[in-house]
Amino acid sequence: MIIFRFFIPICVTLLIIVGCEMENNPVELISLVASDSIARSGDTVVFACEAQDGDGDKLSYDWAATSGDLTVDRDTARWIAPGKSGYYHITCKVGDGVGASDAASITVRVVGGVLQGVVSNAVNGEIVTGVSVTIGENMALTDNEGQYNMYLAIQSGLYQVSAVNDSFCPFNGSFEIPEGFSSNTFTYNFSVSPYPEPGEIRMVLNWGAQPGDLDSHLKTPEIEGQTHHISYANRGNADSSPYITLDVDDTDGYGPETITIKQSFAGNYVYYIYQYSSAGSLQESGGVIQIYNSPTCDGETIQVPSEGEGRYWYVCNIDGEDGQITVINQIQNSEPSN
Predict the structure, then answer these.
(1) Which of 93, 125, 155, 184 lies most in the core, judged by the most C-beta atoms within 10 Å?
(2) Are 46 and 76 in contact (CB under 8 A)?
(3) What is the pLDDT of residues 276-310, one digit of tens each?
(4) Which CATH architecture has domain 113-194?
(5) pLDDT of res. 93
(6) What is the DSSP letter of 271?
């Protein structure tokens, strides 16, 4: 038997396909910024998210907030702060659509309201920077525009204020936020007095927004053969009789109204306030008077009384011989006499 063996060459062709995948470069979020880091309830804060993609892919932006309302326009978002005070996080996530992404968050503090005001010089009316203002447990420094801001819930009640600066006498006063006050911003402006020069006695009046115009008056004893009545109508003279000046006359609320006795003479000085404006009342003005004796800031702090009727606030008498202050502190219908 003959066996034939046939070898059939079988050629198997392997087709190897090599796939070439291009590397996807990462997305980089460059910055996330906010127009404000502190906002009041209901305020709008604007955010901007800047990013880039290594491949030039079109980027998508996903925004999220722990609370509040967001309105998004790609790399920009507008956020309305919620009604509850606290710290809120706003997040921007950027993606290229093919797997790469980057994200960042920013925190905004939401407060119930703002206590704000401007501190001025009681003698010349100019703003004062670097004043440390304390209201309750809150403290702030006045900025380059003389303004301070405190972020807290605005609630009705009486607030005690103190302020210090090395170049000025300490200030102590108070203001009241009335029942039913609905705004989330309350303004309290006041002034601080430079240290009085030797022999000077200075009287500084600060008050609230209303009445708009309170006027300081000072009646003198006889000086060089004549008595004087210092007010907006007769601002006095520093270098000759009566040696008294009305330094600042405020007509639009808050004050100051400042009178400085440059040189005093024996006899009685009568100091009082007249309500020139019709709107508001002395009792609700929040008026506070600080009287400073040289060479220190010793003297008296006198709050306007809450009782009495009339447009005259009889504050005190001052003995020109020894500087003794006799506090009267009453509201009355008639002008005080000397």
Answers:
(1) 93
(2) yes
(3) 999 999 999 999 999 998 878 988 999 999 999 99
(4) Sandwich (2.60)
(5) 97
(6) E
Q: Which CATH architecture has domain 195-338?
A: Sandwich (2.60)
Phi, psi dihedral angles at 264 (to 5 degrees): -100, 155
User: How does 203-220 read in b/e, with b if 16+ C-beta sit within 10 Å?
Assistant: bbbbbbbbbbbbbbbbbb
b or e along 306-315 (b: 16 or more beta carbons within 10 Å of the residue's beta carbon)?
Answer: eebebbbbbb
Residue 20 pLDDT > 60: no
Query: Cα–chain-centroid distance for residue 57?
Result: 46
Sorted by sequence, the CB contacts under 8 Å of residue 309 that are 6+ apart come out as 331, 332, 333
Distance of CA 295 to the CA centre of its chain: 31
- Say what the pLDDT of residue 18 is: 42
Same fold, 27-111 and 113-194: yes
Q: State the DSSP string of 77-110.
A: EEEEPPSS-EEEEEEEEEE-SSS-EEEEEEEEEE
Domain 27-111 fold:
Immunoglobulin-like (2.60.40)
CA distance 8 to 157: 108
Count the Cβ atoms, other than its own, within 10 Å of residue 222.
Answer: 12
For the chain, give every domain's residue range: 27-111, 113-194, 195-338
In DSSP terms, which residues pair with 186 in a beta bridge?
A: 115
User: What is the reported pTM?
Assistant: 0.72
- Give mean pLDDT, residues 57-82: 96
